[in-house]
Write a structure and sequence with these properties.
Structural class: mainly alpha
Keywords: Cell membrane, Membrane, Signal, Transmembrane, Transmembrane helix
Radius of gyration: 18 Å
Protein name: MFS transporter
Number of helices: 13
Order of helices and strands: HHHHHHHHHHHHH
Main location: membrane
Membrane topology: Multi-pass membrane protein
Number of domains: 1
Number of strands: 0
Shape: globular
Organism: Roseiterribacter gracilis
Distance between the termini: 25 Å
Strand content: under 5%
Length: 292
């Protein structure tokens, strides 16, 4: 698979995730955040499992793949947890753009933990995306408790992106890793939800559309696209592309929930898209110049 195709798969995943912020927000009128996470990722595991069993050599994976899957699943659960709770207290627009802070945490964690040296354009690209996120949030002085939780979650998403990329390359089975991380996340969600949240058939029925979208498309399809795409593009580049999720979330929030974005917020959106273009075009320009 070419890098261009991999990047397009990642961009499609970001689009699906952008719309998922709306589903995650509206679902909580009927169901608690923990049960939402548990059911969402259980559905995602079921959807991707048949494809994972046919991937590569088939089977349910060895001990190494399950170690990766378990570790990725823990960070996926933590990221989903703080994001879902945070959305109870903030807008889709803020949630989407504050989640995109993993654009900065991913290369920093990669360097600190694994000594992965990204292309030098990643750093100004990450700074540009961070500046755009700040503008779209209206400035840090306007962030509330929900915003703070989602900001902390950027660390968990950064670790999930890093480990999924490394695990996909090590095992050659990104779809299997997706199923494993979904299963771990669903199990953790079920365990914690059973302790802290009530559940009823009416709650599940009331959030059925959102659960199907978040589980089948946002969970099953988009995370699988991420896993496949990350096999063929650098981790830090993948983080920048996936940050398109933020302006797309804002767009869907405007169209579907009637949210409003200020003029300064529109500038922030432009900066994030500029960062995406920068990180994709600059390395190609350098290679062509070196080849000429």
């Amino acid at each position: 698979m070419s890098r261009l195709v991999a990047n397009l798969l990642l961009l499609l995943a970001a689009t699906i995730w952008g719309a998922a912020f709306v589903a995650q927000t509206t679902a909580m009128a009927s169901i608690g955040p923990l049960w939402f996470i548990a059911i969402r990722f259980a559905l995602a595991a079921i959807v991707v499992a048949p494809f994972a069993l046919r991937e590569g050599e088939g089977g349910a994976g060895d001990a190494r793949s399950w170690r990766y899957g378990a570790a990725i699943g823990v960070f996926l659960f933590l990221g989903a947890l703080v994001q879902q709770i945070g959305l109870l207290h903030t807008t889709v627009t803020n949630g989407g753009f504050l989640t995109s802070l993993y654009v900065l945490t991913t290369p920093v964690l990669g360097f600190l933990l694994f000594r992965e040296m990204p292309h030098r354009v990643i750093w100004p690209g990450a700074a540009l995306a961070l500046a755009g996120t700040w503008l779209l949030g209206g400035g840090l002085g306007q962030l509330n408790w929900g915003d703070a939780l989602i900001t902390i979650g950027a660390i968990f998403w950064g670790m999930q992106i890093l480990l999924l990329g490394r695990g996909s390359r090590a095992t050659g089975r990104p779809l299997l890793l997706s199923v494993q991380q979904f299963a771990v996340t669903a199990a953790l969600g079920l365990l914690v939800a059973a302790l802290f949240e009530p559940i009823s058939v009416a709650a599940v029925r009331g959030a059925a559309i959102e659960l199907l979208y978040a589980g089948v498309l946002s969970g099953g399809l988009a995370f699988a696209l991420q896993a496949v795409g990350q096999r063929h593009t650098p981790n830090a580049d993948a983080a920048i592309i996936l940050s398109a999720e933020a302006p797309l979330a804002s767009l869907f929030g405007i169209l579907l929930l009637g949210e409003r974005v200020s003029a300064i917020g529109a500038v922030g959106c432009t900066l994030i898209f500029a960062a995406i273009l920068l990180v994709q075009l600059a390395p190609e320009w350098q290679r062509r110049r070196n080849a000429s």
